[in-house]
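pasting Centrosomal protein POC5 for the record, 215 residues
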Amino acid sequence: LTNFITIILLTFQANILTELKNWKLNLIQHHKLQMRQEKERHATHVKQLQNEMENQKELLHTYEISISRKDEVVITTLTKTLEKQKERVELMRRFTQWRIQHVKSKQEEYANKIADRQYRTALMKKVWVAWRSICEVKWKDKVARACQLRAEEVCVQLTNDYEARLAELIATLEQTKTVILQLHNEADQSENIIKEFLCAVCALSQEAMTILQGQ
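structre below
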């Protein structure tokens, strides 16, 4: 009977360790998938910013050609405006990269903490089972039930902690998306302001040309 109970306990221990290892591997794979998706979104966003920068460069080149014969003050003002717009786009790109890197580092740190905590929990369970095996026979059933309840409580606590942290990371990611959307909106507004300003400059130039031709 003692050998049979020992075999059952060893089997129970092996099953728990196997389950913990599988849980750890699944958790790491899940975080790797999240990080890969985040890298893909980051690459897409960087590509969009690069396209916007190329468009801005082309627009700057066109403006330089079109205003080459205009008043010197207008040329200086327009050039400064375009340089500010380029600086703003560059700042947006750098801020986005920093934000994504920050979120990624937080995710990796949390994944490492979860893995270390699970390893320590499994080691504690192993020590507990070894200590329990040397106790008297009459206490084996009671200790086994206590261990099972404690393991369930630890698993539930770890699950709750993970879900709470995951919710925080999701909320942080949503805030990052909101900030990026706001920056895009501000960039669109700035582009509209520049277009209106250029229209006004063109109209002023045409009026000046008309006056000069009249003279």
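The CA atoms of residues 201 and 207 lie 10 Å apart.
The first helix runs from residue 2 to 66.
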